[in-house]
Design brief:
164 residues, Immunoglobulin-like, 2 domains, 4-stranded antiparallel β-sheet, 4 strands
Length: 164
């Protein structure tokens, strides 16, 4: 007999009452399976988040300065988890948004944080210097190509003029 104020075990209810309240026969292992799938999903999300938060290479611009109409110096930093060479893609853009310099730079093998400076030869006066990305086995995927104004010849890199 059930305790006062309770309806008893739903498995003992008549079929029409069980249908009315949506009580179904479910094996006892189903909640365990759902819990296990939930934990597996949580573990997968954690692993993906960890890998995204700790990339094998990370880089950023520390600063840039327009030296002249033909030159911009870009200072950047690269953080590598494993010792190895890196390839970085930098560009300088004009005020109108077109590229005025574009360079792919090979960095010597190193591990940890390294700082680099590159003098970019520009087609005309630059406004901003950018690091598009770095990769361990060549340029990273998804890096856009150079976008010079029509009729502008991309200058040879790096800067080798006076004061270099």
């Amino acid at each position: 007999m059930s305790a006062p104020g309770t309806a008893g075990d739903p498995r003992t209810w008549p079929e029409h009452i069980r249908a009315r309240y949506g009580v179904t026969e479910r094996p006892r292992w189903v909640p365990w399976l759902i819990g296990g799938l939930g934990l597996a999903f949580l573990a997968a999300v954690t692993l993906v988040g960890w890998r995204l938060a700790n990339p094998p290479i990370d880089a950023g611009v520390l600063g840039y300065v327009t030296v002249s109409d033909e030159r911009m110096d870009v200072r950047f930093e690269v953080q590598r988890r494993a010792a190895g060479p890196a390839t970085c893609v930098l560009r300088a853009r004009a005020e109108d948004g077109f590229d005025v310099a574009y360079a792919t730079v090979e960095l010597a093998p190193a591990q940890g944080r390294t700082t680099h400076e590159l003098a970019l030869r520009t087609a005309y006066r630059s406004f901003v210097g950018e690091l598009l990305g770095c990769g361990l086995s060549g340029p990273p995927p998804g890096i856009p190509g150079a976008q010079f104004r029509p009729g502008v010849t991309p200058p040879e890199q790096p800067w080798t003029g006076p004061g270099a």
